[in-house]
Amino acid sequence: MLFNSFNFLVFFPIVTVLYFLLPHKFRWIHLLLASCIFYCFFIPVYILILIVTIIIDYYAGIRIEQAQGKARKAWLLFSIISTCLVLFVFKYFNFVNSNINEVASFLDLHYSLPLLHIILPIGLSFHTFQSLSYVIEVYWGNQKAEKDFGIYSLYVMFYPQLVAGPIERPQNLLHQFYEKHEFNYNDATAGLKKMAWGLFKKVVIADRLSIYVNAVYNNHDKHNGTSLLIATILFAFQIYCDFSGYSDLAIGAARTMGFKLMTNFNMPFQSRSITEFWRRWHISLSTWFNDYLFTPIIFAKRHWGKYAVMFAVLVTFSVSGLWHGANWTYIVWGLLNGLGIVYELLTKKFRKKLSKNTPKFIYDPLSIILTFLFACFTWVFFRAPDLHTSVSILHKIFLEPGSLFIGERKNMIFSLFFIALLIVVEVISEYKLFNGFSVFNNSNILIRRLSYVMIVIAILEFGVFDNSQFIYFQF
Amino acid sequence: MMIANNPDIFKFIKSFLVILLAILLCDWLLGNALGYLYSKQQSGVLYRTSYAIDSTKADYLVVGASRANHHYDPRVFESSIHSSFYNCGRDKQSIFYSCAVISSILNRYTPKYVIIEIKPDEFSQFEEGELATLLPYYNNNAVKPYLKYNGKFQQVKMLSHIYPYNSLITNLLVGLDRNWIEDYKGYVPKTSVISNTKLEPLKEKGATDSLKVKELYNLLGRLNNKNIPTLLVISPMHYKYVNSVTTSICQQADEKFSNTAFLNFANNKSWIDNKLYSDDYHLNVNGARLFSKQIAEYINQQNKHFEIANQTTSSPPLR
């Protein structure tokens, strides 16, 4: 079920109201059933895959806790391998297979394994990582193995974050299912406000921008560098509003029932460096990689000194790229971000000196703009269908300027207006301008309520209602 | 704590109801204001659609999407066939739009001739929201039956007064200016010229939408019953057209309905000159003039045949 669908508009209040009406002991069953229904709106049969991985990781968690020494590690490996195997078959098999095919044909070797004609289960990468997080935390002794199968299932399947995160940690989420949540006015209003803002970002900004971005990127061979540059910049805002909009909807939906999910985005376009950008962008995934890949690599290679950090950064970002999709474009996208961070590590002292010698009002905005442009540059690889196209688009952007394709004028007007609005809102929030003025959290009840009304009206008038999927669903 | 004893619930319900009431009020006020602006349109795309649905009395009509709107110049038709002509085409529309417009016209009067421009991928799967342009005509009995195809829960969504005018605010404001005219009797010319000479292949997207075929055949049946000659046209394009589904559906219609003829200009070698195109999909003003001339000549020939046939037998005009 899509958060921006009419189905969800019916589903959400029913599930939330029933949650508070039911006695506490039955609430987990209710949430689990609701989550199953939510998932079955995509491809129902794929819920079986989810159930299999849940059973494996639930059982492995208990055995890891009970076992000692090598057996403990063996259970962890069993859990990781079997969970990742599902991900590999559905997401990476065809990619690996076709690459082997190409290498074999290049070497004149006979190799033929047929491609699998299967659809990727929605959100597979997200719940795989959430499951892995659980077994690793149990192995490290940071989390007790969950004995209640129903609660563990709910940890993986909790509908607000089932298909596109935030990727939760067991320490943050599991105990919340045992807590009795009374209806709380502040939680309910905060949740609904978050959802309204998330829906606004999705249907008013992201889906509007997608019209221009798709028109240009889907016909990239017919557009010049100027149009491709603008489409790439708009894509940056599109993907941000799409994914952070989803996260806001997920966090808000959970919050209305009293659940607190982790923050996933913290105004990433205000970042002054690529390192800072990744502390603000898709935080649940960045911290996941930091905890379970980056830090262990540094620990294992600590004798390499500063090269261990660089190596860990490059490996982590390449894997992060691969996590996003089985395509070389995503790997290059990840690698470029890794290289950007390595560059920042190497020039840290120089940049610090430069920042001291440059007025803040010049250095900070310049850093923000350069970080944003670097992110846009890497997103060309993220958005383009293949490496050849990515290079061709970049070639045009740098060497083939021309007159700008506008498309439908009103789309461009709405797009620019709402991007400007988003920037204003985020700048006020980031720098606490006008005493941190916020219409949503204003002390004046009239302004506050008027803002709720206006956002609904804006969604009705300016929203794009074509039931478009969230970009991150494909991962 | 029992749910009934929780004061937060009543506080929330109270706030929620106040906000809901305010939303409903704003929706009603703004929706009606937008509706008023819509009814006062003097020019622009919304005015043209309203004019096509509610007012035109032209003898000759063309309906369809952007290729209809930019390819058929009424001046050429009027000077050639000496009858009134109106271009009802509108950008980004599907066959459902054409059916809805013609249906509402047929409820008002009987045109002499109808041209239906068919897109190369006309019968590909309908995408939700494609008929949003007709939502302001929800209360029009001829249009309403087609709006069920616009997506699920259409009736519930239409409870909002703003929803039918979604994203129309700029069109509504521009359309109030009587002097802001970009068309001649619905026709909007395209002036640019493409530079590429290479013909790319064009394929139909996805599976065929049987509902679109059904609605087209229903409309053709209705036009046939009213004895209105109808011409299905796939106009020229700067593509190598490799689709057979759309053409075969049109050919079947040609065979099935005696008043219907089909002209296919796709892959026509006399239409590969890039100077005639504004983009690969649309003719420019010169191309449109030339194309309109050819269609007008074809209609004139048909009319002559019809006159001769009428003098000798009572055979239908196009067969």
Q: Short description, anyone?
A:
The complex is a heterodimer of chains A (475) and B (319). By secondary structure, chain A is mainly α. Helices cover 72% and strands 0% of the residues of chain A.
Which radius of gyration of chain B do the C-alpha atoms yield? 23 Å
CATH architecture of chain B: 3-Layer(aba) Sandwich
What is the count of distinct domains of chain A?
Answer: 2
Helical residue percent band of chain B: 40-55%
Q: Oligomeric state of the chains? A: heterodimer
Report the average pLDDT across residues of chain A.
90
- Distance N to C terminus of chain A: 16 Å
Shape of chain B: elongated
| Shape call of chain A | globular
The CATH homologous superfamily of chain B is named SGNH hydrolase
| Content of β-strand of chain B | 5-15%
Structural class of chain A, by secondary structure, is: mainly alpha
Number of strands of chain B: 9
The greatest interface between two protein chains, and residues involved on each side, is: A-B, 28 and 34 residues
CA(first)-CA(last) distance of chain B: 81 Å
Uncertain runs of chain A with pLDDT below 50, 5 residues or more?
A: none
Text of the CATH class of chain B: Alpha Beta
Mean pLDDT over the full residue set of chain B: 88
Secondary-structure map with pairings?
The complex is a heterodimer of chains A (475) and B (319).
Chain A: H1 6-21, H2 24-40, H3 47-66, H4 69-106, H5 124-140, H6 149-157, H7 170-178, H8 185-217, H9 225-256, H10 274-280, H11 283-300, H12 306-324, H13 328-346, H14 348-357, H15 360-383, H16 387-399, H17 409-431, H18 445-462
Helix pairs in contact in A: 1-2, 2-6, 3-4, 3-5, 3-6, 4-5, 6-7, 8-9, 8-17, 8-18, 9-15, 9-16, 11-12, 12-13, 13-15, 15-16
Chain B: H1 7-39, H2 44-55, E1 60-63, H3 66-71, H4 74-81, E2 85-87, H5 95-108, E3 113-117, H6 144-147, H7 154-157, H8 169-174, E4 200-202, H9 210-225, E5 230-234, E6 239-241, H10 245-256, E7 260-264, E8 277-279, E9 282-283, H11 285-312
Parallel strand pairs in B: 1-2, 1-3, 3-5, 4-6, 5-7
Antiparallel strand pairs in B: 8-9
